[in-house]
């Protein structure tokens, strides 16, 4: 959650100063002299990643382009620093803040030099309006970070809010909130998604110049930005029909970088020694897992079957064959580099003999001699649908390998390879029984409290996020305790307990974490890598830091 190219004969002045608590510049800032040509960073996206409208609906939260579209148009209250700064809290619209002993009551002091793209000052009224109405407009914005019990606009630049849950251990509330201009949106407050938002008036470092759905999104630098003018004059998000077409465009110089999740590992070798390019790698923000549909009335709902499935999966082989080595095994929704990672969880190392023994002991045997075990409820063979999106090339290969591995222990698998939109329709509605299990992925990020809604009981508010139809009063109690904890020690204790419960209940069988491969054009410098690569929802820093290499 990375400046201004000047051709030969033109002096480039760059000041790269991190945003500080009072009045510092956020961006590398270039000379304002007019050059002979505009500096343009070209960024590639596939059609399935791209926005169709500029309305702030769920696509600003879920679509890859959406996640790096609004953060360069709209300022946030505060922002996560890049990996090099330890993912720390950095001021943005808020210059400073205080919290009371309850860890729920926060006072934010806003900077006085921020203005919207139309010249209107940004005030606490805009923050209050956004917090009150945006979460009501679309449930995608109804996140823990925005759940409050009361707020007060003390003056134009001071905002006080009482949160429903505790924060500050280590991250603040109101993260990932695009502050909208009240004077534009107020007439639409009761139906915000009815406003087309074609101009996208924000207070961010770039302005929207042109939006062509299915073709491109064109941004231009905000020369009056409080953090200094960005170092490139323009950014264009270009849209391609497939990952292969986008990768070809990267190779031939049509784009300078990929806008999300890097390139397919199978293509990495093509860029290794390519002139004019360098390859950056980083651990993925996304974690990949097997998503078990516990609504199904078959063996998938049986914990012993899920244990056997996980014991039968050779993750190392999947990494070698499907990801060409660009991945590492993973066992938790919390990254190992974070302090609240729990190393004492239940694991299911690859062991075909043990997987068979688990199934035998649970009564799943092949009663008809066809090579596939039978359900213990007499409903037939243990034949299950494994769902995966067609556009996820490595995961399709991984699913094929899982099919082979489960066949070794007597479980039949039919691959259900479908388009991404249909996949999302199905995976978020497990109660419609469109799949038995699926390959799934998401990126919790360093500030990952929101992610635990994937595990909150379906019958206790988890519907819409919980893709496994998982229900656990024990987990819900731990999560609620974590959200109300008033010390970092206490919060981390519950964070670890939650990881332990998920590892034992196995609604999700966590597999691996990819390495992101980002080939970039060396005509620019300032590409900033964090978990997930150089461009993603927690890392807009490339767009803040990018500048010409000339």
Offer a quick outline of the entry.
With 550 residues, the chain is an alpha+beta fold. The protein has 13 helices and 22 strands.
- Approximate shape: globular
- The share of residues in helices is 10-25%
Strand residues, percent: 15-25%
Mean of all residue-level pLDDT scores: 92
- Secondary-structure class: alpha+beta
How many extended strands? 22
- Uncertain runs with pLDDT below 50, 5 residues or more? 1-25, 27-34
Biggest beta-sheet profile: 7 strands, mixed
Number of helices: 13
Rg calculated over all Cα atoms: 24 Å
Written description of the protein model:
The chain is an alpha+beta fold and 550 residues long. Helices cover 22% and strands 22% of the residues. Strands 14, 15, 16, 17, 18, 19 and 20 form a seven-stranded mixed sheet that branches. A five-stranded mixed sheet has the order 10-11-12-3-13. A hairpin with a 3-residue loop joins β10 and β11. α7 (315-322) runs antiparallel to α9 (393-407). It is globular.
SSE diagram, text form:
Layout: E1 15-16, E2 28-29, E3 40-46, H1 59-62, H2 64-69, E4 78-80, E5 89-91, E6 94-99, E7 105-110, H3 124-137, E8 148-155, E9 158-163, H4 182-185, E10 206-212, E11 216-221, E12 234-240, H5 243-251, E13 257-258, E14 277-283, E15 287-292, H6 303-312, H7 315-322, E16 327-329, H8 352-361, E17 383-389, H9 393-407, E18 412-418, H10 420-427, E19 437-442, H11 473-484, H12 488-505, E20 508-521, E21 524-525, H13 541-545, E22 547-548
Parallel strand pairs: 3-12, 3-13, 17-18, 17-19
Antiparallel strand pairs: 1-2, 4-5, 6-7, 7-9, 8-9, 10-11, 11-12, 14-20, 15-19, 15-20, 16-20, 21-22
């Amino acid at each position: 959650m990375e400046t201004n190219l000047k051709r030969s004969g033109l002096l480039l002045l760059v000041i790269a100063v991190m945003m500080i608590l009072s009045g510092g510049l956020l961006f590398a800032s270039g000379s304002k002299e007019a050059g002979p040509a505009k500096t343009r960073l070209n960024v590639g996206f596939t059609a399935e990643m791209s926005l169709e409208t500029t309305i702030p609906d769920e696509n600003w939260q879920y679509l890859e382009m959406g996640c790096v579209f609004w953060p360069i148009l709209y300022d946030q209250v505060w922002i996560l620093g890049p990996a090099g700064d330890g993912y720390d809290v950095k001021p943005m619209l808020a210059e400073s803040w205080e919290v009371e002993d309850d860890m729920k009551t926060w006072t934010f002091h806003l900077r006085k030099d921020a203005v919207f793209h139309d010249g209107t000052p940004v005030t606490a009224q805009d923050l209050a309006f956004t917090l009150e109405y945006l979460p009501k407009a679309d449930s995608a914005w109804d996140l823990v970070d925005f759940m409050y019990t009361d707020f007060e606009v003390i003056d134009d630049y001071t905002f006080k809010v009482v949160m429903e849950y505790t924060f500050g251990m280590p991250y603040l509330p109101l993260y990932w909130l695009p502050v909208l201009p009240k004077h534009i949106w107020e007439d639409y407050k009761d139906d915000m998604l009815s406003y087309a938002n074609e101009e996208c008036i924000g207070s961010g470092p770039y302005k929207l110049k042109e939006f062509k759905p299915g073709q491109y999104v064109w941004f231009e630098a905000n020369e009056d930005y409080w953090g200094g003018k960005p170092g490139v004059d323009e950014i264009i998000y270009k849209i391609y029909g497939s990952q292969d077409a986008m990768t070809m465009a990267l190779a031939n110089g049509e784009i300078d970088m990929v806008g999300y999740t890097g390139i397919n590992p199978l293509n990495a070798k093509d860029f290794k020694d390519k002139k004019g390019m360098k390859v950056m790698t980083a651990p993925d923000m996304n974690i990949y897992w097997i998503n078990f549909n516990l609504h199904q009335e078959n063996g998938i709902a049986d914990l012993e079957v899920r244990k056997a499935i996980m014991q039968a999966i050779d993750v190392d082989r999947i990494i070698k064959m499907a990801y060409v080595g660009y991945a590492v095994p993973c066992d938790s929704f919390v990254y190992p580099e974070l302090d609240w990672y729990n190393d004492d969880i239940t694991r299911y190392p690859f062991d075909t003999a043990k997987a068979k023994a688990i199934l035998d002991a649970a009564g799943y045997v092949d009663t008809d001699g066809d090579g596939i075990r039978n359900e213990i409820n007499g409903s037939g063979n243990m034949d299950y649908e494994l769902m995966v999106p067609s556009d996820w090339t490595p995961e399709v290969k991984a699913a094929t390998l899982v099919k082979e591995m489960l066949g070794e222990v007597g479980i039949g698998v039919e691959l259900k390879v479908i388009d991404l939109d249909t996949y999302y329709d199905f995976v978020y509605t497990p109660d419609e029984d469109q799949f038995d299990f699926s390959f799934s992925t998401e990126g919790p990020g360093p500030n990952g409290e929101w992610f635990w809604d994937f595990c909150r009981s379906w019958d206790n508010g988890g519907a819409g996020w919980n893709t496994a139809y998982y229900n656990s009063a024990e987990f819900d109690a731990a999560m609620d305790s974590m959200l109300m904890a008033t010390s970092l020690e206490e919060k981390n204790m519950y964070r670890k307990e939650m990881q332990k419960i998920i590892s034992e209940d196995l609604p999700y069988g966590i597999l691996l974490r990819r390495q992101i491969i980002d080939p970039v054009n060396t005509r620019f410098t300032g590409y900033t890598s964090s978990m997930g690569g150089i461009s993603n929802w927690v890392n807009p820093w490339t767009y803040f830091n990018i500048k010409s290499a000339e």
